[in-house]
Fold this sequence. Notes:
mainly beta
Amino acid sequence: MRVESSVDSLGRGSSREEFQRRQSSRSGELFRGDASATVGGGSRNAQRLYLRGVESNNLNVTVDGARQGRDLHQHRGGLTGLDPQLLDDVEVDTRPAADQGPGALGGSVRFRTVDAQQLLDPDEQTGARLRAGYATADSSEQGSATVFQRLGFDWGALAHVSGANRDDYETGGGDNMPYSGGGDRSYLLQASRMPVHGHELRLGVQRHSFEGDTLSGGAGSDFGDPRVEHRGEPEKQELRRDTWTVEHRYDPTDPNVDWQARVYRNDNRLKRLDQGTETRALEHGGDLRNTFSLNAGPTRHQLTAGFDYYTEDGRLEQDDGPRLSYTDRNFGAFLQNRMEWERLRLSSGLRFDDYTSALGERNPEGDAFSPNLSAELDLAAGWAVFGGYGEAARGPGGTMPIGWVQYIEEGNDDQSLKTEESRRSEGGLRYQGRGLVASRDRLNLEATVFETRIDNSLERVGGGPPHQSGVRLGQRDVRISGYELRAAWGVNAYDTRLSFLSAETEDDDGDPAGVSRRLAGSGGDRLVWDHRWAAHETLTLGYTLTWVGDDTDVPDDEPERDGYHLHDIQVQWQPWADEQVTLGVVVNNLFDEQYAEHTSLVSEQDGELIVRDEPGRDIRLEAALRF
Length: 627
């Protein structure tokens, strides 16, 4: 059967090699090489991830299997705080499947940290890596230290600490973006047992914290531009995530046993230090699954059966306002069968979710079945055709910030808060070939048409300051449709990948829906063309072109947005053959383009578009010592 890599040749997902080549320093930069995954917002507190136009609150986002939960505040993005130096890879999956986990209305994003054994050569027992870096756009100073050790034959241990101090960044043209700086701290302790007699075990403890000044609400916070307008004074905020994970895998020679069990504890906190306010979401969960490998006549099957569960408890404690709390629980059971018969691959599954929520005085509960069916047929000469359809569901309020509990009024009874649902469909052509242009070259092509419908997503009806009378919660529908093109070609030490996304977001009346917090947003057509050349065994060169077209398909009350194009270059050099020292230079936005992502939230003043610009030219220098 086909083995599905977390980082495929067409550029879905990212690997440790790519993080290091780009000198990625925060989680929002991990998707810079993929047109279908965009991060809008500009400043750290406003950043949000969109995958094929679906915002990350509608994805199943995990770190080592730990679900990352919801936004802690209306005016803060939910992008997970991570040090890319900790990661082995990022897997992105937009295909419908029952075993993607709970809340995967638009797919899944899985971050996986690195093990000690992956950093050690076969004949090494102990190793360490020191890294220091500097970036000009935000005058950031960064450093990290990692040590890794074998413990006997099969165990390994790893400890990592890193920090980054950033000033407000400069936009294209040289303006400063207020309230965009801050300090990051990341820590990881991990023990891992590599497969022995089929058993593999990973235990990890992570902490990531960020502290900086920001605006908490109104124009200039996560929308608009603080250089032009803002309400209130900036305040110091601290965001902290603590994650504990345990994972066990068992894969003996028995074809009926391929076991995976995970449990986790995830603790997210947001403190508004000047206001004496703390928002906290504490989640416990896990999943258990087994994959059976079966042969039935001419067909081969991989049947995955399992269940997952989480409970999330949140609270908001504030000096000026009510104490708010919520509880969200979900139990899921799933079956997913992946069958191969000659040139046909068929995947079918069914998921059951049972949810219970306590939103203030409201207690919506319910259950839902979500089927899926996908097929791929090999044609001739390396071509294949594929298509699929799938559904997903979760309880109401899955994207709701904790502070919204106060807006659940009498009009929002348990029955009026409907189950949030999605329907995804896609179809397309795929090609794999070798030796077409040069001897031993490799070419992969893919064209996909897709549509995602999300129904009953929760939103706030009305605006104004907190506690304003007449504000309540409502539910809305949205449709994201478009097409995606991917190509990858390589020969010897050179590889190039191209991805292109054209998508539009519409409401249930078929009108443009623009960009919505925690729901969806697209923009102009987007193309990313990445090149990597290992010019010498000690020298790697890279170049990335990002082109974005004008966004003219906007709601009547929103202005159109201009397109832009960016050029990034990357250089990695190991001056000595022992690979102990690595020097790197990266220039992002080489020509200092002034631009804003189309998924950044805007405001309007006197007919003018007011939006937060992204960083301008950013020269990054890095030195790493491995011993």
